[in-house]
User: Fold this.
Amino acid sequence: MSQATDTEAVDEDGVIESVSGPVVTATDLDARMNDVVYVGDEGLMGEVIEIEGNLTTIQVYEETSGVGPGEPVENTGEPLSVDLGPGMMDSIYDGVQRPLDVLEDKMGTAFLDRGVDAPGIDLEKEWEFTPEVEEGDAVEPGDVVGTVPETVTIEHKVMVPPDYEGGEITTIKSGEFTVEETVAELDSGEEIQMHQEWPVRQARPAGDKETPTEPLVTGQRVQDGLFPLAKGGTAAIPGPFGSGKTVTQQQLAKWSDADIVVYIGCGERGNEMTEVIEDFPELPDPQTGNPLMARTCLIANTSNMPVAARESCIYTGITIAEYYRDMGYDVALMADSTSRWAEAMREISSRLEEMPGEEGYPAYLAASLSEFYERAGKFELINGGEGSISVVGAVSPPGGDFSEPVTQNTLRIVKTFWALDADLAERRHFPSINWNESYSLYKDQLDPWWESNVAGDWSDVRQWAVDVLDEEDELQEIVQLVGKDALPEDQQLTLEVARYLREAWLQQNALHDVDTYCEPEKTYRMLQAIKTFNDEAFEALEAGVPVEEIQDVDATPRLNRMGTAEEWNEFIDEIESDLEEQLRALY
Ligand code: ADP
Assistant:
């Protein structure tokens, strides 16, 4: 959160009237909706969420036990804002953008004390600023005036803030500066520093949303191949406990071809978040070999923190994502899990005694969710460039029941749905993305990308796979009744092909060095190899070869090793020619 304005508390103090968990009411506070206030003697950070006459209701982002009536409430007069500037990459924040490592140094523990403040970005560190414009140049809001090497991977662009007027550059500096020092001056009198503030509940301005036509390549076959997400698209991952939500999100953070990753750990069980905080800084970035954190910002709200902070976590994350989007980057934002945020809304709403909607969630649940996902997209930027935010939200429906309100409302908004399945996870079929329930509405608009970058017949081959899996699904019902052997031979063969689609193609081991990432070409070639088996096998069947003999061909089981094959091109070439040769030899 911004420090600059903390000291400018202008308005008169109010007085606490009541405290109910994270919800505090105060009287005599001169405040507007969404103003940030400091509550109680300890100065806990909170936000105004309701004003009725002289009574102001505040949601507090820190634990309120021990805070009582009569204590003061101080208004900053400012909305909840984030401080945006170099240093956010490679940072781990809590829900109100306090860097966890800084707080840890201050307090000697990762669990935060109350009322401790720390600036979101380091105010003392000096950054090397290289100007991109010259004196006399005209600049408008959003224009880049210079760059800073933020991390080994990311070049930070210093931009004219969107709420500036812009004008002609009268002074531009070069060299090492702190984020608070002015690096450029405009004839309008405006001064540009390397950081800017932005209120989190307000989307940063951008031009029109464009139709996304490029996939966010995830390196996961089932996702890229069957249910692709576009750069600038929205996706949800619902799944019961243990079905692989965290692994899936982390695979995305690690392997997707986004420039920037913003990872929000929103109120998941404390130890899980600790795992993420400990694991991420160790992970290498497969794109560059540099640490993954060099292009990642983690926002970690553990469940030890009060529920209200989950909301600020989400808004802080999306605002940071927008800031990097404005630099022209493709940002991927993961939120794990949006259900915890929805539960926080439910709790606050019930403390406010609002009229409950479905299952006690507030009536505005759908609106809040869609406001969040709405900030995703591929945008034309105000400086004329392009940038995107892809948003992936995990949903944790209690008992894995997708009919509950958070899953249902999310479904109505997102265009890619990766439904994790407890049965598949139990059978150790990973990623446990259920191919019957999942979908992607981006398929058609991304096909041209696949066709020009991977293979001209991509959509036909994929459709073939979808049809086989559908047919398997129908045949399974019969198999359960009468057994596989009762089926005609061609249907038995279809089941065999479908088995390879599932085991050799859809399954992918995140824990295997090679299989953990699958480039689009490999995804295509693996699928094509299974189709080669299919085509050759059906030819053999038609020529009168019994299905058992076809199944016994020695090249087929090798299909299952394609995923883990390092020299996959050669490996697949060989399987294809062996399949052809061996199956043709049968007739
Ligand atoms: P959740 O977050 O839904 O509770 P996790 O992501 O922690 O579930 O996954 C549970 C376990 O399932 C993991 O510890 C791992 O062993 C296994 N798993 C999940 N996804 C994969 C995958 N893609 N490849 C291999 N194992 C996986």
Observations:
- Confidence is low (pLDDT under 50) at residues 2-11.
- Residues 239, 241-247, 430-431, 509-511 surround adenosine-5'-diphosphate (CB under 6 Å).
